[in-house]
Design brief:
Aspartate Aminotransferase, domain 1, Aspartate Aminotransferase, domain 2, pyridoxal phosphate (chains A, B), alpha/beta, two-stranded parallel ribbon, EC 2.6.1.9 (chains A, B), PyrdxlP-dep_Trfase_small (chains A, B), about 35% helix, about 350 residues, homodimer, aminotransferase (chains A, B), Histidinol-phosphate aminotransferase (chains A, B)
């Protein structure tokens, strides 16, 4: 018989984001920008010592353990930190909370594909200024009237990083809009916009535990901004789901933040491997914008990206490829371990004669 | 200087739900309907054996481990199960996905307070038929034109349970609307509406791990319904945040579902304590609708609920009280351990001469 047409009529139909493949077999997995190294060693200890009886109780809705540790790490007040279930949860809540103007929000045409999905989901008008041929944002595009601005820095999937002077210029031209800088990959790049927070009360910086902190499996992200913006975010969160981060996310997340030395070492290793990989790619004839994330966005003049993507996949090496306008000749290659990159380049050297 | 008025204008202002207090001191905590007993013993083992290195990877976005275990438990197909970060996450997503009509959705005037908050958050029109004096729903109220229906069974905070014949009658009169039965407390009550799913493709049943499964701290909830409704829910979820349940929720949740014997024993103990507590309350002169959840909604003819609430709190016994029309003379008392209830009744016997 099927569902009644009037039921169907009232259902919100969306085109879902398709996440990168999570193959069940053992493969060289360079397709979802995960960190190749394990989380801080203390995380294991914290889990081992956890008293599971406590699970019968709700977690702390304010997630104080984690917000305090993050506040200490970033030298802000805990009321300036808003944690969520991955930066996707935090960003989606930011869209719902801050982007309620009739004017379109602005984000680049080539960027994290969730922005468009959230805008459509919440029926927020949006406009997408085009990146230039080098995949750089044109700052003047962000001087036009808008209902908010969001972009990643470094951008995804291009790995292009803009200096703080660029961010500050956009903030300066948009005192009447909330500007969100999505810094999922900033630890691999350069300065964070966090240092601008004191001066710009319209700035929100969003970061994640999924990349530099090696904890994609734990789902933790956070926004940092001025207390008033964070309070509005909390109000919406408390009306949604008071208890979002579970007890284990709180204790493991806090422990990971405590270990600054491990965090910094982990980042250094990945940057080192990335710089080496850039050299190898260049030698093979690939072109790419200077990569400042834990991935490289590369194209080859003589081989179609789709062909390379499929050949790599056949060899159990997974990278990411989108069949979209302007980027279909590019592969996004996550920086893995030295060993994983060696296998990748052994294959490519053989394939690209 | 403060945030620019144009920024403030575009912020979504909501009145957040205020969750029950989570006191940091050791108190008799009968205020948030948590389970007084620990989760299934296997959960501890699963955590101990977990290889933390895996946390560097994203969790399975389809949460297969958990949906398969739930499908086995409830004898449905895994495509009929939608898991989320607590039933609040699942319910909120249901509002967003299914309640997009111009017509008002319907839910009782006295019920889980989040329904109103979500409706306002998503700007869904709603109407709240009044419960009768015994806090029962009048079925005819749900025959009117609507854009969807939601109610808990047993209802909260009243603990009143409606038989399946009542649910089926509402389904029968609403073939053109999605009807959501929120069964957070059903395991303490009677039959679940799950057995109606085959016959009503407009029915969604939502349950949680926070009550009968003793895992409020883990944040797991789920909806079960026909595959098509579940697919729409997944589409919206994948456009929100592909990876919601973290790896530990998946393995601990699956383990808890496997242990049916523990689950049933846990429920039996709580029901036993509840039935005894009803006798004690009646002896003390309290009146209450027949309680079918893990809490009792009680009023006393000679003592104001607020007075009792504050006196109990002073004695480090936390129960829940709302200063709202129609229910301000009631206390919601969670069923704790035998020992916790003894302490509660020792106090009340002394207080109520």
């Amino acid at each position: 018989m099927g569902i009644h047409p009037n039921v169907l009529k009232n259902i919100r139909h969306v085109t879902p984001y398709v996440p990168g493949e999570q193959p069940q077999r053992k493969v060289i997995k360079l397709n979802t920008n995960e960190n190749p190294y394990p989380p801080a060693p203390g995380v294991r200890k914290v889990l081992e010592e956890f008293h599971t009886d406590a699970l019968r109780l709700y977690p702390d809705p304010a997630a104080e353990l984690l917000t305090e540790e993050l506040a200490r790490f970033y030298e802000v007040e805990k009321e300036q930190v808003f944690p969520g279930v991955g930066s996707d949860d935090v960003l989606s809540l930011c869209f719902l909370t801050f982007f309620n103007s009739e004017k379109p929000i602005l984000f680049p045409d080539i960027t994290y594909s969730f922005y468009k999905v959230w805008a459509e989901l919440y029926r927020i008008p949006y406009r997408c200024p085009k990146l230039d041929k080098e995949f750089r944002m044109n700052r003047a595009d962000y001087y036009q009237e808008n209902g908010g601005i969001i972009f990643p820095n470094p951008n995804a999937p291009t790995a292009v990083y803009e200096e703080l002077e660029f961010i500050e210029d956009i903030l300066e031209h948009n005192r009447e809009s909330v500007v969100i800088v999505d810094e999922a990959y900033v630890d691999f790049a350069g300065k964070s916009a966090l240092e601008l927070i004191e001066r710009y009360d319209n700035l929100l910086v969003v970061q994640t535990f999924s990349k530099a902190r090696s904890m994609a499996g734990m789902r933790i992200g956070y926004a940092i901004g001025n207390k008033e913006l964070i309070r509005y975010l909390n109000d919406v969160k408390y009306s949604f789901n008071s208890y979002t981060l579970n007890q284990l996310s709180l204790i493991c997340g806090a422990e990971a933040v405590r270990d600054r030395a491990y965090f910094e070492k982990n980042i250094r290793k990945i940057i080192q491997t990335r710089e080496k990989a850039k050299g190898e790619l260049a030698n093979l004839g690939f072109a790419f914008p200077d990569a400042k994330a834990n991935f490289i966005f590369a194209t080859h003049p003589d081989y179609s990206a789709e062909e390379l993507f499929l050949a790599l996949k056949k060899a159990d090496i997974y990278v990411r490829h989108w069949n979209s306008e302007r980027i279909k000749e590019y592969l996004r290659i996550t920086v893995g371990t030295e060993e994983e990159m060696r296998i990748l380049f052994d294959f490519l050297k053989h394939y690209i004669k």
